[in-house]
Amino acid sequence: MEPRTALETAARLIYRFLMNSIFANLPTTIFETMSLLARETGAVNLGQGFPDDPGPEDVRRKAAEAVMDGWNQYPPMMGLPELRQAVAAHYARFQGLDLDPAGEIMVTSGATEAIAGALMALIEPGDEVVLFQPLYDAYLPLVLRAGGVPRFVSLEPPHWNLTKEALARAFSPRTKLVLFNNPLNPAATVFCDADLALLAEFCIGHDAIAVCDEVWEHVIFDGRAHKPLMALPGMRERTVKIGSAGKIFGMTGWKVGFVMAPPPLMRVLAKAHQFLTFTTPPNLQSAVAYGLGKEDSWFSEMRAGLQRSRDRFEAGLKACGFVVLPSEGTYFINIDLAASGINEDDAGFAQRLVREFGVASIPVSAFYAQDAVTTVLRFCFAKHDATLDAALERLRRVL
Ligand SMILES: Cc1ncc(COP(=O)(O)O)c(C=O)c1O
Fold it and tell me: What is the model's pTM?
């Protein structure tokens, strides 16, 4: 029915342009804010997590060759068969997993699509979803948009570990799904065996599905080996494991992700993927298939290179007088402001650091939806030595 009065017309216009409140009310992300400030002020940008290095040349060359010589039309919805084979072989080699490339592996446009698709496919409105704070910024809006009800477990520095009491408070008979990130960005921790066993016990006890964001699985230090939650007894049939070639090869713009799940879950995940992106550029898929087959030494050298950058930056931070939290994995290292004698909160200090000292970082409170920890600041160390040294030169003047 057409509006008859000016008031009705105004009401209709307001209604029409009322957009989805979850996205309409989201502020600009801290990553954009900090990167913008870094550009404006000419600061060294250790905020957003991407490496200075351009990525392995042979893998990039494969992608370029595939564009020129290959098939550039829609690849199969589930991903190129050669990539699904390569993913299966890769996880058998590095994590002892036995995955069927035909029914248990799907290629997505980055881990982000895999996470969004899993939440859309698995959550019914009203289902409770256990989330761990600090949490990756995409999780909460996607859970809410899927109709999920978040139940937070707050992790605290310096160990960020799970406790039975905290899990017992968050899990309930309505728990449908747990979204778990290991290694954990931004805490830069790798969950220990006891934490994984505790989480598995709660998932099994509450018959919940675990969606495991393991994009940092290869970026772990000091001889650690990644343990997928999927490999724990009783978890295989209830786990969706998510990986990202962008993180494995240090080319974050590639957005090639993979999802591994048992067939009954995969069938539904595939339905969501079908209408989210349907597919992912074929040249990047074939280059990633090649890359995943690289010899073990490439992966250990990649880790060693990042570990060397971590050590260089960590030693520099300590020499500046900052108290540094352990970085066990990811591209990140955190400083504890309170322990360093800084009484400002992380958001205010991050602003001052970029404006007055010329170093961009990320306040970890931005990764909390409630009861934020406000005393921790994150830096990305996946940078050239010269970039790290330039940042340290500036940080030396802070304390
Ligand atoms: C925990 C976590 N999940 C997912 C992503 C996004 O992965 P992708 O670029 O493959 O979508 C990131 C990127 O930083 C991340 O840190």
Answer: 0.95
